[in-house]
Specification:
By secondary structure, the chain is mainly beta. The protein folds into three domains: about 120 residues, no CATH class; about 110 residues, no CATH class; about 100 residues, Beta Barrel (Thrombin, subunit H). The chain contains six helices and 22 strands. Strands 6, 7, 8, 9, 10, 11 and 12 form a seven-stranded antiparallel β-sheet that branches. A six-stranded antiparallel β-barrel has the order 13-15-20-19-16-22. Strand 3 and strand 4 form a beta hairpin. The chain is flat, with a radius of gyration of 25 Å. The N terminus is likely disordered.
Length: about 350
């Protein structure tokens, strides 16, 4: 973060109390006491970093911009060279335009964020650093149960080859749904809900891509494919899914539209604990109200301990009490499936483990 200018601490605290008292923003969306007067946007900035410089809670960004749901989903309106300034009287952030002489006059140069139609402008400031999640946006990470059961599969190879490489032919059986381009995956470990213990999906190892060469002829249910790319060995038994449409890569960080409580199902890479900038999966998804850009708070689930200070219960048993959940960080949701979501750990004060709680910001 660069180009911050800050006024006196007293003025900042005055603005903080004004914002919470005037109804402009709820107390949980309060501005930081050291919030700068303005920030000149530079290449490499992210919405999360900029929001965190002004606000205690970066996911309060939409509140102080007065954004509606459509604008949250399309925050392509902040570019390098523009100026974000703190309207302390209104308790709001504003978007200004730098003047030719290098100065900014917020009184005459006020702009409001607005939705831009068409393709995503690659120059716009992203929500989070794209390098952290790029490999996970288009490759299959999770195959949910219904898709897993219906996925087409490679049943044979030309000339009986054990493994396929670029340009090789594969014979595929299954319903293609009118698609011609497919990703190849190999099912991995089952993903179980930590609470219900039900299988809610399977990990998927991405192997490459196939393209349809010839659909099954009359009297046959086997299609002919050609390998476009192979990042790992592809062979008989590997399964296919249609190449998904290009994902939306830029959502303003925001609280979910409805209360969500989830559990960490797995940590990417098969490790037991995760830290900042690592990726975890949750047992909640689109059907539970999660969308891209939603931010959840992470908690260690409270332990159940023996209360040695209480009277003994029946048969001399000690009473058990459950300790409160302990907040340890925040999670930015960047990809959602029906029942599962993937999130990037943004801030953390203690390692995150499978079974930890992720819930809507309080």
């Amino acid at each position: 973060m660069k180009n911050f200018s800050t006024v006196g601490t007293c003025l900042a605290w005055a603005a903080l109390f004004a914002a919470s008292g005037a109804g402009a923003a709820p107390p949980e969306c309060a501005f930081r006491p050291d919030a700068p007067d303005q920030h000149v946007v530079v290449r490499g900035d992210t919405l999360w970093e900029i929001a965190g410089a002004f606000l205690y809670r970066p996911w309060c960004w939409p509140t102080v911009w007065d954004l509606n749901r459509d604008e949250i989903a399309n925050p392509h309106w902040i570019y390098p060279g523009q100026i974000i300034w703190f309207d302390r009287g209104a308790g709001r952030l504003r978007l200004g335009q730098r003047l030719q002489d290098g100065l900014n006059d917020p009184a005459t140069q006020r702009l409001q964020p607005r939705v831009r139609s068409g393709l995503v402008d690659q120059n716009a400031v992203p929500s989070i650093a794209p390098g952290a999640i790029e490999p996970f946006l288009t490759q299959p990470l999770v195959i949910e149960n219904d898709e897993f059961k219906a996925a087409p599969r490679i049943v044979a190879t030309r000339e009986g080859r054990v493994f396929l490489g670029k340009g090789d032919q594969a014979y595929v059986r299954g319903e293609l749904g009118g698609h011609t381009a497919f990703q190849v995956f190999r099912p991995g470990a089952q993903l179980k809900d930590p609470v219900t213990r039900q299988v809610i999906g399977h990990e998927a190892f991405y192997l490459g891509t196939l393209r349809l060469q010839a659909s099954a002829a009359a009297g046959s249910d086997v299609h002919t494919f050609t390998v476009d790319t192979a990042v790992q060995e592809i062979g008989v038994g590997d399964q296919l899914r249609a190449v998904p449409p290009a994902p939306l890569r830029n959502y303003a960080p925001h609280a979910p539209a409805q209360p969500v409580e989830a559990r960490v199902v797995a940590i990417y890479g098969g490790v037991t604990h995760a830290g900042q900038s690592q990726i975890v999966s949750l047992n909640r998804g689109k059907l539970d109200g999660l969308d891209i850009g939603a931010v959840l708070q992470l908690y260690h689930a409270g332990r159940t301990v023996r209360d040695s200070t209480a009277e003994q219960g029946w048969f001399g048993r000690a009473q058990q009490v459950r300790l409160p959940d302990e907040e340890v960080g925040s999670l930015f949701i960047f990809r959602t499936f029906k029942q599962i979501s993937y999130g990037l750990i943004m801030q953390v004060t203690a390692p995150v483990a499978v079974g930890d709680v992720a819930r809507s910001p309080e």
